[in-house]
Fold these 2 entries.
Entry 1:
Amino acid sequence: MPTVVVDSSTIISCAANCILWMFDELKKKGFKFIVPKGVEGEIISSGLKTLKYKYEAIRVMHHFVNKTFVKYDKDLRQKAGELLKYANSSFRIKNHYLKVLQEADAEVAVLAKEINADFMLTDERTLRLFFESPSSLEKLYEHRFHTNVLVDNSNLAKLKQLIGDIPVFRSVDLAAYAIDEGIFNLSISNASKYDKESRKHVIEGVLYALRFGGCGVSFEEIGEYVNLLLRNKK
Amino acid sequence: MANGEALEENVRYDIIDVLEQVKDALERMDIDALSEWSNHIIHSIAIYREKRAVYVAIIAYSLSKLVEKKREHQVQKDKWSNFIANLLKEMVQAVEMLESRNIVKFDALIAQIMKQISEFDVSFSRYAEEVLEFSKVQKGARIYEHGISLSSIAEMLGISKWDLMRKVGELKEKPEDEHFFGITKNSKQRLEELKQLSKK
């Protein structure tokens, strides 16, 4: 079963919507979720420092304790630094390289390559596009900064060598998969006592909640998932 | 604070321009203009990672929120007039300091303005979210629209990724969002791919 590296953004979207239990259910099916040390700090340490997110951090903590999320302790800073060097000198605007990624982002990418993960989870659009389509990032920058963007293809190529071809998914994709696999069937069955369209409500409810929790997904993509999952009823 | 570190010329001009416009907008109590000018400087923040540009954006946005709150809440007239008069005077000084490249004094003055805004907000508002913190998160979401990662923004603004993600989730979709969301595969492809990978 797959080994998956998880970024803080995905854990935050799921924690904010109380669906971290989905990871427990997937673990029972054999999924292994690995989290870099820096990412754990971004979620738990920073959450514990604020009154607003303390309890959410505690809920995430629980999933480290029950070993659904396994922390990867090895120091990845050197490799992450190398990756950052290329990522942050790939796009140039007004004679300045855009510093787009940060160490925690780089650690996720480095760890995925290091352990030969089957895929990576991130709700962070910028990191995902580095893997899937750097040319989309170029278009995004041109569109947002209203100016020409110079792309350093040599640095992008070096970056590509470092990160490899690991597939990237978001919380929304994982939740759609989980719904398709019947993991949300109990919620659907309970909701059906109130409304006969419970399956549709649960699908829309979960996917839109993740979108509003910060997952980089469009309404159009969610609409596609809703239709797909309603057709694939299990 | 940036503590007198060098300031890129492009950014210096940008900050001077924005401060002058913010001062004019504040004189007119123009909430929309204050908010708009806080976004104007986002490019400088994203390209140059310049903290002073971040502070000026936060000041402009915080002021738009304070003027808005003032319309809804009772504030002692003298207290408000003194607060605004002081700010206008300090904005003129800030521009002069930048024009004469007195960066050390400029940094100290910006810190003082932020402190005044924060203290004034606490004194007349019982809002749960303090205006400066709220503005940081708001501006962070704007920077994210420009393709900078959440972790980078959280680090740059000193805010929590928890707050930032919540705010990013509230961003509205616009016609150009094909770029914003970076749609590279359709949902059917993603689901099929995930099913294949889960069989491994």
Entry 2:
Amino acid sequence: MTPILLTPFDIAIAASLIVLDAALSILLKLRLHRQLAIAASRMVVQLIVIGYVLRFIFSLNNPAVTLLLVVVMVLVAAREVAARPERRFRGSSNFVIGAISVSFATFVTAILALTTAIRPQPWFDPHYAIPLAGIILGNVLNSASLSLDSFLGAVQRERPGIEARLCLGASYREAIAPLVRDAIRRGLLPIINQMSAAGIVTLPGIMTGQILAGLDPLEAVKYQILLMFLLSGGSGLSALSVSYLAAWRLTDARQRLRLDRLR
Amino acid sequence: MPPAMLVKNLRGAFAGPFDLSLGEGDCAAITGASGSGKSLFLRMIADLDANEGEVWLHGRERAAMAAPEWRSQAIYAAAESGWWADQVIEHFSGNSRSEVDALSARLGVRAALLDAPVAQLSTGEKQRLALVRAILPDPRVLLLDEPTGPLDGESVRLVEALLQEKMATGTAVVLVTHDPDQAQRLGSQRYRMTGGRLEAA
């Protein structure tokens, strides 16, 4: 079975639903029609642009260019991780911590999948490497920012308890361990929910996409399972690295709690 | 014999430089307005805030000790006591139950409270139990930040008696207090903190 290709006319029919939404907004005075129109146009433009970018990069089929695109995606994700928490480090530590943990988790999981499970020829074929890196990045970004936000918030709140332990002779590692643990747990919750709900509450996007594109449901399911494992691996690695890096950045050679490094 | 504690040119970003010398059983009582640097001084001795300068305990310099070892010999008890577990008793894992019971009872804390959740304690009970926690390991120096701040008259008397007993066995104390009478009663040396500087009072 070959995929059913869409014509611009097919898409125009679906676009009438946006017009319907806008009409509702005007009718019910929701004052959302402007935002709706802008968001819909942005979505169309962004996706068409990325479509051309991907087509171009696929045609180049140059490992260096593929790597460059993935690195740009990682840096954008790292910026998001750095910007989310309410409490932040002074200077650039937030971004550096975000970049290290996001790139570590993404590269390890993506390369593992490309070289052992999916095995395209060559393994860095952009058709596989870029979409895979993108999906993993989305999840890794989510986990890392939840963990970082949770850690920096908790450390602020728990300061008297942490310092009380330090004063009684506990090492910084002992005193901070419960907070690191909670932060990692926080980062892993979304993927656990996603896995529990998969197939019952939701039909995951990749699987749906592949079925629509004509793949046998069981083949699509296998892909989705592989992907869920990859995503949980990526989530775990990013939650772990972001939490430990933030904990490490908040102390010094004398095992103090350096909240003065936050703003 | 070297002093129990010697502070030399200790300074941080917002307070200092400080110099202080305490013999065994001495108590330096520090009074002064809020925000004058009293807590910062204690925190710097305990090495909780970034600082420069030297602190010696019985002839051993701070820099020669790992930070946890240092802090367990010069224990700082903050004005706002800190707790990290749910149950009170979990904060005393390093001590035997009978020791904890005995010392808490001396400060008028009911033994049943040790098995209660921290959330059920009043501020005064927390303050006294934090003091028990700081005294039990028998540190050479106690750095006490308003230990009797939230306490009633009877509890203040119990705490002061306990501190005097510890001093009689050689423990040196740096005491930050808002109460000039308490400084008078406990302090063998008395200071006023003004604008991050220590002046003899």
